[in-house]
Write a structure and sequence with these properties.
Elements: H1 2-37, H2 44-88, E1 91-92, E2 95-96, H3 101-117
Length: 120
């Protein structure tokens, strides 16, 4: 029984070793082929194209920064407007009235049902 287990472990070890050895050999062959086949000399046109691409990327980055600044300014303006509206409270006939949580939830549910069903 013991000899049978040892033989099984030996066969398993040899099989796993062969699998990993072949994988490593194939990896080495692929790396070698990449080094042999990817020897391309850069021409002046390619280097000019790369420099043009870099300048375009710089301009795009500046445009993105400008858009981010505009978005931040819009967000601040909206936030300030919401704060002012919240501080003044809901107005009915130019009087400040407070709405409790139950009324707010009920009104929101009614509006949501109108949107889902469509106005009738």
């Amino acid at each position: 029984m013991r000899e049978l287990m040892q033989t099984g472990w030996l066969i398993t070890g040899i099989g796993m070793g062969l699998v990993f050895a072949v994988i490593i050999i194939l990896w080495g062959l692929m790396a070698l082929l990449m080094k042999l086949t990817s020897r391309e000399k850069k021409t002046k046109l390619e280097s000019e194209a790369e420099s043009d691409l870099l300048t375009e990327m710089v301009f795009l980055q500046e445009d993105q920064n400008d858009l981010k600044k505009k978005a931040a300014a819009a967000a601040v303006a909206i936030g300030l407007g919401l704060i002012q509206d919240a501080q003044s409270g809901p107005q009915i006939n130019e009087q400040n009235t407070e709405i409790n949580a139950w009324q707010a939830v009920t009104r929101a549910r009614q509006l949501q049902n109108q949107i889902i069903r469509g106005r009738r």
